[in-house]
Specification:
The complex is a heterodimer of chains A (419) and B (415). By secondary structure, chain A is of the alpha/beta class. Chain A has 18 helices and 14 strands. Chain A has helices at 26-34, 67-71, 86-97, 110-113, 118-124, 149-155, 177-199, 209-217, 219-222, 224-227, 264-280, 286-289, 303-318, 322-332, 342-347, 349-353, 396-402, 407-415, and strands at residues 16-19, 38-43, 76-80, 101-104, 129-134, 204-208, 237-239, 245-247, 249-252, 255-259, 336-338, 357-358, 371-372, 377-378. A 6-stranded parallel sheet of chain A has the order 3-2-1-4-5-6, sandwiched between helices. Chain A has a 3-stranded antiparallel sheet with strand order 9-10-11, covered by helices on one side. In chain A, a hairpin with a 2-residue loop joins strand 9 and strand 10. The longest helix of chain A has 23 residues, at 177-199. Chain B is of the alpha/beta class and 415 residues long. Chain B has helices at 30-40, 74-78, 93-104, 117-120, 125-131, 156-162, 183-206, 216-220, 225-234, 270-279, 294-299, 301-312, 317-326, 337-342, 344-348, 390-397, 402-410; strands spanning 21-25, 44-49, 83-87, 108-111, 136-141, 210-215, 251-255, 262-266, 330-333, 352-357, 361-366, 370-372. The longest helix of chain B is centred in the middle third of the chain and has 24 residues, at 183-206. In chain B, helix 1 (30-40) crosses helix 7. In chain B, the strands form 3 sheets. Chain B has a 6-stranded parallel sheet, sandwiched between helices. In chain B, strands 7-8-9 form a 3-stranded antiparallel sheet, with helices on one face. The chains are: A alpha/beta (419), B alpha/beta (415). At the A-B interface, helix 2, helix 6, helix 7, strand 6 and helix 8 of A face helix 2, helix 6, helix 7, strand 6 and helix 8 of B. Strand 14 of chain A pairs antiparallel with strand 6 (210-215) of chain B, so a sheet runs across the interface.
């Protein structure tokens, strides 16, 4: 292991990342940038297609003001480069010589077709880690299939158990599949990165968005070989293996709260605290007051009894606001969270107390202090957004000059529409 | 107490994390699954448990063949493979001494108890750094280690509500629902792997350890970044709108032939729309003025969806997907657990892999969602039973004599 005397102020400060992704892979590079890597976003001349993706700043779709694009391209520098052109490929090869990680999300096989597949890149720079983020991975019968967010959520099993039984299965309305996969992709990339730092050996990391979504589906995705039964959607309720239907979301005075009635070692304290509180307001029957919550479990309670208790809880919640229920819980230890809107989240005292909202310098949108901050708090190397999302090719001169290109070279490339 | 493992559960060579040593004090999914991804890539993970505090994941259904048991649950088994299991009653001072020994020889500690619990055992960050200053420690929690709400209990299935996901899941005319499962746990797991790998490499380079304070609430907001900016900049509060898309139409889950079977379809532009009309044998629809532009297709989506379902209902979701994909249209089966098990793509990628297991013989265990070309993961052994490797860890890893081990056993250290 060679001792490195480069910049150690941030987790990934000494490393250079080339980001060739479209929306399927943006988040991976953005997170590597948040961790301190020097991330170079490579856009086609004219800019990424996803710069036209909603939501936008204001009502109009101005080309540099997609909030979607800005969100997942913070902490990157931007250059333009047409990698379909021969001279563009030559420049990419030169960039790869000095890079540590390349992230891409093209259709499997496309980079090979232009002579820039993993084996070729590995010959140029054996230390390079290449991460490919694609809908189904590089191999398999669906490798070439087209997706959008909803198709990934469907194929990863997240939709089937989500929704009301009398309507179609549901996705989360806001598209999140690519960002979720992006987070998993960073993990795989950094495992390969660690190995490379120890051995000098780069490799290809093949990320399947479908498999990332499968992980979020968890036990509903794993159950078939265990019990030969599927988990179906049941609205804001859950159907237990015994057939018992339990409630997960309740209406309250000004919105909704998430709570579920649970006894035994994990839930006793919480449900007892809630029942005491309900009792204080005179809403608990004698039999409910005497209930032994340590012994209460889903195996022994009847549906009728459960429905009756949940009915009492619902009536109580409807007398109180989200804020009351959540804040009272502070001293009462009730396992309850409000159904937050984004407005609630922005106002949340806990996030403010932890300094979650970050100030971002140089934002073209004047969004300073508006960015969601660190993914995690690292005691030795705090994470901080360093730059807002770049304009199209904003760093062409800076980066191409570093590479040894002259102004004359650049004007030729510009004329030939390579950059 | 006797281990049925003659050697390390991670004996394969050429693993990216070979030699990395992790001690895990976890309960539930977020901490344990983080350790699993690293164990799959060769790290030695020693999982500390106690019969006095049974991991909630061990008693979470579904169980193998529907028979309850602490070593039979799909949830526990999928996130604890490739690990050693040791039982330690951390309220016993000698158990604490053993924990200190395990931590001293480790690179990483993963814990996800309520903030402060590790401190009560004398194993909080401030205490550990006294004897192990270069440790990388991941403390993963619902709301973070600091702040006015840090001590609040709760499960991931509720945290999804706090993190905004319930409000944006469901139908516009109905109450909020939730994405399936402990969604925020899985964002915490992805982030935990990121934090540990970055901090471990940083330590390799600088010799410095550190504490990672991971709030699952905070990292779960990352995918909502564009909607958060939309609120800040435009005052728009994202809300649930079924399967509606703000750019594509048709867009949704369409009922297909069979019992509760559906196919998701997304038509993103006019060119795809024309192709779509050909696939469903209604080429004239492409010229229908109610549907000629994306905007019109979105505003007349109810009518449009009815027309589409009149076609999809005669086809299996697999046929709908394959027919659409042949014309380059994004479509995919709304897969149930059974569909995932039968999915030829996941089979080809070996997403579920058989691992040997002491009680079940073997079971199918999920692999990480990425393949590393030179150092692929190896799922070698199933999840340990409670204390399965206690003797092995004490005598083979910590070098304890058998006499000493038996003595501690008698004192209730390993309960």
């Amino acid at each position: 292991m060679v001792t490195d005397c480069r910049d150690n102020s941030e987790l990934l400060a000494p490393f250079r990342v080339l980001d060739l992704t479209d929306e399927k892979g943006f988040a991976c590079g953005a997170v590597l940038g948040l961790l301190g890597a020097d991330v170079v976003k490579i856009e086609r001349p004219g800019g990424d297609g996803a710069r036209k993706q909603p939501p936008f700043f204001g009502d109009e779709g101005h080309s540099e003001e997609s909030l979607y694009w800005s969100s997942f391209n913070t902490n990157k520098r931007s250059i333009t480069l047409d990698v379909k052109k021969k001279s563009g490929q030559d420049i990419l090869r030169r960039l790869c010589q000095k890079a540590d990680i390349l992230v891409e999300s093209m259709r499997p096989g496309l980079l090979e077709e232009i002579g820039l597949g993993w084996p070729a890149l590995s010959r140029i720079n054996p230390r390079l880690v290449v991460t490919s983020i694609t809908p189904f991975g590089q191999t398999g019968p669906y490798a070439q299939y087209e997706v959008t967010d909803i198709v990934c959520q469907a194929m990863g099993g997240q939709m089937y158990p989500c929704g009301d039984p009398d309507r179609p299965p549901l996705r989360i309305t806001t598209p999140v599949a690519y960002a979720v996969a992006g987070l998993y992709a960073v993990g795989g990339t950094l495992i390969a990165h660690y190995h490379r730092q120890l051995t000098g050996e780069g490799q290809h990391v093949d990320v399947s968005i479908q498999e990332c979504i499968c992980w979020t589906t968890s036990e509903a995705a794993w159950s078939w070989p265990f019990v030969g039964a599927v988990t179906s959607r049941f609205g804001a309720r859950r159907k237990r293996p015994t057939g018992l239907i339990t409630r997960e979301v309740y209406p309250c005075k000004d919105g909704h709260v998430a709570f579920y009635l649970m006894g035994g070692p994990q839930g006793e304290k919480s449900v007892r605290a809630l029942m005491d509180w309900i009792d204080e307001e005179g809403m608990v029957s004698e039999s409910l007051r005497r209930k032994d919550w340590a012994k209460f479990d889903y195996e022994s309670v009847s549906q009728d009894e459960l429905d009756a208790i949940e009915g009492v809880v619902e009536k109580f919640f409807q007398k109180h606001t989200k804020e009351e229920l959540y804040q009272k819980r502070t001293r009462k230890s009730i396992q309850l969270y409000p159904v937050n809107t984004l407005r609630d989240i922005v106002e949340d005292k806990q996030l403010k107390a932890r300094g979650f909202w970050d100030d971002v310098q140089g934002s073209t949108l004047n969004l300073s202090k508006l960015h969601p901050g660190a993914l995690f708090q690292a005691s030795e190397t705090p994470l901080k957004h360093k730059r807002a999302a770049p304009g199209i090719g904003e760093h062409n001169r800076e980066i191409y000059t570093e590479l040894g290109l002259t102004d004359e070279d650049l004007s030729v490339l510009l004329r030939e529409n390579v950059i | 107490m006797k281990s049925n493992l003659a050697e390390s559960p991670n004996a394969a060579t050429n693993q990216a994390l070979e030699g990395v040593k992790i001690v895990e004090f976890t309960i539930g999914a977020a901490g344990a699954a983080t350790g699993k991804f690293l164990a799959d890539h060769g790290a030695e993970v020693i999982r500390v448990e106690s019969s006095a505090r049974v991991d909630s994941c061990r008693v979470f259904p579904p169980y193998k063949d529907g028979i309850p048991g602490p070593d039979r649950g799909a949830y526990y088994l999928n996130i604890n493979n490739n690990k050693y299991g040791i039982a330690l009653n951390l309220k016993h001072p000698k158990a604490r001494e053993l924990a200190v020994k395990l931590i001293t020889r480790a690179d990483i500690v993963i814990e996800n108890f309520r903030p402060g619990v590790m401190g009560k055992w004398g194993l909080g960050w401030e205490q550990i750094r006294q004897f192990k200053p270069d440790l990388v420690m991941l403390s993963s929690s619902n709301l973070g280690q600091t702040g006015p709400m840090a001590q609040q209990p709760g499960f991931g299935v509720q945290l999804v509500a706090l993190a905004g996901y319930a409000h944006i899941t469901g139908w516009a005319d109905r109450p909020p629902l939730k994405p399936y499962g402990a969604y925020t746990d899985w964002l915490g797991v992805a982030t935990g792997v990121i934090a540990l790998m970055a901090a471990l490499e940083y330590r390799q380079r600088t010799g410095k350890g550190q504490l990672i304070d991971l709030s699952q609430y905070e990292c779960s907001l990352y995918p909502l970044f564009p909607s958060i900016l939309d609120y800040f900049v435009n005052g728009q509060v994202a809300s649930r709108a079924g399967n509606h898309s703000f750019s594509a139409a048709p867009h949704g889950a369409y009922r297909c032939q069979g019992e509760d079977r559906w196919c998701a379809i997304a038509v993103c532009d006019d060119d795809k729309w024309k192709k779509f009309c050909e696939v469903i044998n209604m080429p004239a629809l492409a010229r229908d003025e109610r549907f000629v532009s994306p905007l019109l297709r979105r505003s007349n989506s109810e009518e449009l969806d009815r027309l589409i379902e009149a076609w999809t209902i005669w086809h299996s979701p697999e046929d709908v997907m394959n027919l659409m994909q042949r014309s380059g249209i994004a479509a995919g089966v709304v897969q149930s657990g059974e569909d995932l098990y039968e999915d030829p793509q996941l089979k080809e990628r070996e997403h579920l892999r058989p691992v040997p297991h002491s009680e079940l013989g073997s079971y199918l265990c999920a692999a990480p969602p990425y393949g590393l070309s030179r150092t692929p993961c190896h799922l070698q052994h199933g999840a340990p039973s409670l204390g399965e490797h206690t003797e092995f860890v004490c005598t083979q890893i910590l070098g304890m004599s058998t006499d000493e081990f038996v003595g501690l056993l008698g004192e209730g250290v390993f309960e």
